[in-house]
Design a protein that fits this description.
The complex is a heterodimer. Chain A is 40% helix and 19% strand. Chain A is an alpha+beta fold. Chain A has 3 domains: 4-290, no CATH class; 302-413, no CATH class; 421-479, Arc Repressor Mutant, subunit A, CATH 1.10.10.410. In chain A, the strands form 4 sheets. A 9-stranded mixed beta sheet of chain A has the order 2-6-7-10-1-11-12-13-14. A 3-stranded antiparallel beta sheet of chain A has the order 5-4-15, with no helix packed on it. A two-stranded antiparallel sheet of chain A has the order 3-16. In chain A, helix 12 (421-434) packs across helix 14 (448-460). The mean pLDDT of chain A is 91. An 11-stranded mixed beta sheet of chain B has the order 1-3-2-4-6-5-10-11-9-7-8, sandwiched between helices. Chain B has 15 helices and 11 strands. The chains are: A alpha+beta, B alpha/beta. At the A-B interface, loops of A face helix 9 and helix 12 of B.
């Protein structure tokens, strides 16, 4: 393509805290609407906000983890606009002075080289409630509001327009998520909305100093969707430019079903939020020592952990990299090791089958009903030759889907490995008599033929035969 | 017992000793209230049975050997302060049946001390004004002269003797001007001294919760009770480690009173003499008088209104028909907001919201709002400079006598009445209004302003001088 792609991302991350940003309501998801609410987060007259110090600490941790310069003096502003999901008619945010600025994170660019992506600002703000639209009725249905989420602490992380492809955008998000997870700031579950991303994208002729006209992309519910919608819009913009037309500034929404972007707002309405300092909240004052302490107390990040996995567990670098890409997965891996100390074996299963099922189900490791205890139970059964590795895959799948204990799955499905010699001998005898040619070619020195016979036995036992024992018995029978 | 001739201390004493029960005192008060209310329009709600129950509980405490410091003292609460038992009307017809889940911290503390809430008092449209002329319930009549406004209904409640205390908000001067117009004492405390939890402020930067009473002496009885750190109001953090009061004994050469000579030029001519006389009285009383310069009153007034309207625009945005007020039936969200808000906000509140939106808009923020913030800081410094040389400062509370209930006058005229009060609000410093004299049978009050946490000195000086309203 003859154009250079310019992408900047705005990411909202829900912070992990005990309570909301300005009141003591619990900060956790509940299905029942309007349960986690109080006069403060419902905007009752006379109820004043109080800053949750834990949220400030979390935001500070995020800012230092993203290598930001931290403002020792900042404050909250009100962003004023009317919308039913906002109980006060304004959102408390940081407009004029963000807590963190001038940060960066490293990703791999398209050539696989290290690239620093600038982070313009990291600021604290409160989440809004959620609108639930009820369809139908002559009146066109009604809308209801759930304020459980109103006042949940967020940080907004705004990248510089440093990203040059959809792939870089995805890697930036993956890296950001990893950092936020490792720093303990957020669980960053995009499907649950604890990480939300908007993208700005424009094209320009390489070498141009100024940016092209950008569009804003919204409503992307996964990293894949971010990548796809960017690709979609990059192509669309390129077509427009190729035909000599001009791109129009607009906001587009990604439609997951139709796999395309749809215009949301014709023109970017230059919203005037009338921001001003919130007179009900005290300014945020930090000392250089507090910031330094937050920096020093940052927990182990992905790269460090991967190094440790190689050194401590003797894992190949590849394994260490895959396992530590997500903090949940790395935690899962280490939980398994506590009761089953064979790192490479555990790694194979966690990286392989388990991760595949997670991806299919769109889950994170800590959301799976197949717990580290279950994994250990499964691995122990293989180790004790109760089941074969092949059967174990089947057991894992069934246990993963049903939430049953692996041992129970084995019992219910009759998957116990057949190690009973007499039972196996009868089957082996039958296989030998049914495949005289193969037996002959084995006898004639074709070692491969044995494999075929073993396969026949396994097939006859639906994989439950102890493969080692089958091998031994076959050789003995044929040679006798 | 006639409350007008009794101090808070004496009344609580009488209840302790059983000379009168809290129940009897409150029954009598309620009867007086409903009679007076018909003529003066002081109360939006009267507590009735609830007040009686509160009083009985106080009597029970006394039987149990407790000595609640404000046993049975009848208190009026301005209707922008939440009190969970009665409706909190906020000065809007849409809130006439609104029961708040919150009770204001100051009210809570007075009740813990044995005071009994008698009712909620009238206020301007969404609490915005110093006259009650824009109240959806009609204005409160001045008990001294029918046909004139009382300024604040709480002051009227105290002046008539139906209540001994009123808890009131004060942003641009409603409490202080009310006290002036009704011939009673009113204290606006230092920023952060009294929790604003439960106050529906139209202007958070300047709204404070204060006390109106017959005299400075009575206010002294309750100041400590309502002061101090409250985790529900971030501004009270200044009191977390306790309050270091500025205390000086009145009537000594130790105390220098600042006299801002040019400030009195803005007064209506018939009032000027009162302040010259007050100056003489102070001098005779042994105070040192120092002429000071207070040149930023007008700018302070303007800055106050710019900031107050900007904040009102934002503070009142929540009253949009979704969570608060009736949701209007309309075809679009925009229309719904428009119609719902028209029901909730009166003329004055709408005017201020619109001005506020204008002042904060992209084009005007730098032109007006940021300038106002600068003036705010300059005014604060000007007051600080005064208090480098003086212990306190005397100022009028209002420019003119209470306004007439009849006849339209422009809103700008109303706003300009805050000339002496609004700049003090910007300074964040405490101010006490005490009666200074009378003109045409109407009381005229004077503000004593002091440095932060000088309330006790202000109250001591105020109690020793000034004519009490009795």
């Amino acid at each position: 393509m003859k154009y250079e792609v310019v992408i900047g991302l705005e990411v909202h991350v829900e912070m992990l805290t005990g309570s909301k940003l300005f009141c003591s309501c619990p900060n956790r998801f509940v299905a029942e609407p309007n349960v986690n609410t109080c006069p403060v987060c419902l905007g009752f007259p006379g109820a004043l906000p109080q800053l949750n110090r834990e949220a400030l600490q979390q935001a500070l941790r995020a800012a230092v983890a993203l290598n930001c310069k931290v403002a020792l003096y900042s404050y909250f502003d009100r962003k004023n606009y009317f919308y039913p999901d906002m109980p006060k008619g304004y959102q408390i945010s940081q407009h004029y002075i963000p807590l963190g600025s001038n940060g960066f994170l490293d990703i791999e660019d398209e050539k696989g080289e290290l690239k620093q992506v600038g982070i313009g600002r990291v600021h604290i703000e409160e989440d809004a409630g959620k609108l639930l639209h009820e369809a139908g009725g002559a009146s066109g249905g009604s809308s209801m509001v759930d304020y459980n989420r109103a006042g949940v602490p967020l940080i907004e992380i705004v990248s510089e327009p440093d990203l040059r492809s959809s792939g870089e955008a995805r890697r930036y998000l993956e890296k950001l998520k990893s950092i936020m997870q490792y720093a303990g700031v957020s669980d960053c579950k995009m499907e649950e909305g604890s990480l939300r991303c908007d993208a700005n994208v424009s094209l320009r002729i390489p070498g141009d100093q100024s940016f092209g006209i950008k569009t804003e992309l919204k409503n992307m519910n996964s990293f894949r969707a971010v990548e796809k919608s960017l690709d979609h819009d990059i192509k669309r913009q390129a077509r427009i430019l190729d035909s000599g037309e001009k791109v129009v500034t607009q906001t587009l929404r990604w439609d997951e079903d139709r796999q395309e972007t749809i215009v949301m707002r014709g023109k970017l309405e230059a919203g005037d939020y009338r921001c001003f300092a919130d007179p009900e909240l005290a300014p945020i004052e930090l000392t250089a020592e507090e910031v330094e302490l937050a920096r020093q107390n940052l927990p182990e990040m992905a790269a460090e952990r991967a190094r440790r996995f190689v050194e401590q567990y003797g894992l190949p670098e590849y394994d260490a990299g895959v396992l530590t890409a997500s903090r949940c997965l790395a935690d899962y891996f280490e939980s398994c090791l506590e009761h089953f100390n064979k790192p490479k074996e555990v790694s194979n299963w966690v990286m392989g089958e388990f991760s595949a099922h997670l991806n299919n189900a769109g889950l994170e490791a800590d959301q799976a009903s197949f717990t580290p205890e279950d994994m250990v139970e499964l691995l122990k059964m293989i180790d004790e030759q109760v089941i074969s590795g092949k059967i174990a895959k089947e057991v894992l799948e069934k246990a993963f889907v049903s939430g049953k204990k692996p041992r129970l799955v084995v019992e219910e499905e009759g998957l116990l490995q057949i190690s009973d010699q007499s039972e196996l001998e009868a089957i082996i005898d039958r296989v030998i008599s049914e495949n005289p040619d193969t037996v002959e070619s084995y006898r004639g020195g074709k070692g491969k033929a044995l494999g075929h016979l073993v396969g026949q036995v396994m097939k006859a036992t639906r994989g439950k035969a102890n493969p080692q024992l089958v091998n031994e018995l076959l050789v003995k029978k044929i040679n006798s | 017992m006639e409350l007008r001739k009794t101090t808070v201390r004496q009344a609580a004493d009488a209840v302790w000793k059983g000379e009168i029960t809290a129940h009897q005192l409150i029954e009598k008060t309620l009867k007086n209230c409903s009679v007076l209310n018909e003529g003066l329009n002081i109360f939006t709600y009267l507590a009735g049975i609830d007040a009686v129950e509160q009083a009985k509980a106080v009597d029970q405490k006394i039987k149990n050997g407790e000595k609640p410091p404000l046993a049975g003292i009848p208190v009026a609460v301005k209707d922008d302060l939440c009190y969970g038992v009665l409706p909190t009307g906020l000065g809007s017809p849409a809130f006439s049946e609104f029961i708040s889940p919150v009770t204001a911290a100051a009210v809570e503390r007075l009740m813990e001390a044995g005071a009994v809430v008698i009712g909620k008092t009238n206020l301007d449209d969404m609490g915005q004004g110093s006259t009650t002329l824009s109240s959806p319930n009609g204005p409160t009549v001045n008990p001294w002269l029918a046909g004139r406004t009382a300024g604040s209904a709480g002051a009227a409640a105290v002046a008539t003797g139906v209540c001994m205390l009123a808890v009131e908000s004060d942003s641009g001067g409603a409490l202080r001007q009310g006290a002036s117009h009704c011939g009673v004492a009113g204290l606006r405390p230092t920023t952060g001294r009294v929790s604003r939890h439960g106050l529906n402020a139209h202007c958070s930067s300047f709204a404070r919760v204060g006390i109106t009473a017959f005299s400075g002496e009575d206010i002294s009885e309750v100041l400590d009770l309502i002061s101090g750190f409250d985790e529900r109001d971030a501004a009270t953090a200044v009191c977390r480690e306790g309050i270091s009061e500025i205390i000086k004994a009145p009537g000594s050469k130790d105390i220098t009173i600042g006299y801002p000579v040019t400030a009195f030029d803005y007064l209506e001519p018939e009032l000027r003499e009162i302040f010259e006389q007050a100056r003489e009285r102070f001098a005779e009383g042994g105070y040192r008088i120092e002429e000071v310069d207070l040149g930023l009153l007008r700018e302070g007034l303007l800055a106050y209104y710019v900031i107050a309207m900007a904040e009102a625009f934002s503070n009142h945005a929540r009253f949009d028909g979704i969570r608060f007020g009736k949701t209007a039936e309309a075809d679009s969200l925009e229309e719904m907001y428009e119609q719902s808000r028209a029901e909730i906000l009166g003329r004055e509140a709408r005017r201020r919201s619109i001005f506020g939106a204008f002042l904060l808009s992209k084009d005007n923020y730098g032109r007006y709002y940021r300038q106002a913030l600068k003036i705010w800081e300059m005014v604060r410094q000007e007051f600080e400079t005064v208090f480098e040389r003086c212990d306190l400062l005397m100022l009028p509370a209002a420019r003119s006598l209470p306004r007439s209930l009849e006849g339209e006058s422009g809103f700008l005229e109303g706003w300009s009445e805050d000339l002496y009060c609004a700049p003090v609000s910007l300074s964040g410093m405490p101010a006490l209004t005490i009666p200074a004299g009378q003109v045409d049978q109407l009381p005229v009050g004077m503000q004593l302003v002091g440095p932060p946490f000088s309330e006790k000195m202000l109250l001591a000086v105020g109690s020793a001088s000034g004519s009490t309203g009795k």
